[in-house]
Design a protein that fits this description.
This protein is of the alpha+beta class. Helix content is about 30%, strand content about 20%. Strands 1-2-6-5-4-3 form a six-stranded antiparallel beta sheet, with helices on one face. The two termini are about 25 Å apart.
């Protein structure tokens, strides 16, 4: 087992003190940098950096970044959700490390969703019902992993289905994530 222990820190974003979500850092007691290319290959990282090593994944509207000595997750409901996701990622890191002999490491991220493509599925009314000033800003937030199709009240079911189908390849397979 590569990753055995960590210390969890839960906090509110200092830039947005009234935010309804929290963020967390899991300070890792073991260095997992050698496992990152294997983890990236197994889970399809959104972004992969070689130096310093890190891989970022999209979990619905959350971004989860694994560094050599830290895991960071945004847009969490509470500490319970944070612990579940960190434990899941700990297991994924260890699983990828144990299978490394049968995995071809991947040293690049997956393609990113395009803002203009997301915008095509939106009503483009700039109604602000989503909490964003324009549909373009909302589309940007979708590509960043902060918003999703459920956050646009004006989205038709057909457009929602198309947007979700477009975004699916850019997200981690959620099977096994203990929500």
């Amino acid at each position: 087992m590569l990753l055995e222990t960590y210390r969890l820190e839960i906090f509110n974003n200092e830039c947005m003190p009234g935010a309804i979500s929290v963020q967390c850092f899991a300070q890792l007691d073991q260095d997992v940098s050698e496992a990152l290319p294997f983890l990236n290959a197994e889970l399809g990282g959104f972004t992969f950096l070689k130096d310093p090593p890190s891989v970022t994944f999209r979990l619905h509207v959350k971004l989860l970044t694994v560094h050599s000595n830290k895991i960071a997750v945004n847009a969490l409901r509470d500490e319970v959700e944070a612990r579940k996701i960190i434990e899941w990622m700990k297991n994924e890191i260890n699983r990828a490390w144990e299978k490394r002999d049968s995995i071809t490491p991947r040293f690049e991220g997956m393609p990113r969703p395009q803002v203009i493509q997301v915008l095509k599925y939106l009503p483009q009314t700039n109604c602000r019902e989503c909490g964003e000033p324009t549909c373009l800003v909302f589309a940007t937030r979708v590509t960043e992993g902060v918003k999703d199709s459920n956050d646009c009240p004006a989205l038709t079911q057909a457009a929602k289905t198309k947007l979700e189908a477009y975004m699916k390849p850019f997200q981690i397979d959620m099977d096994g994530v203990p929500w």
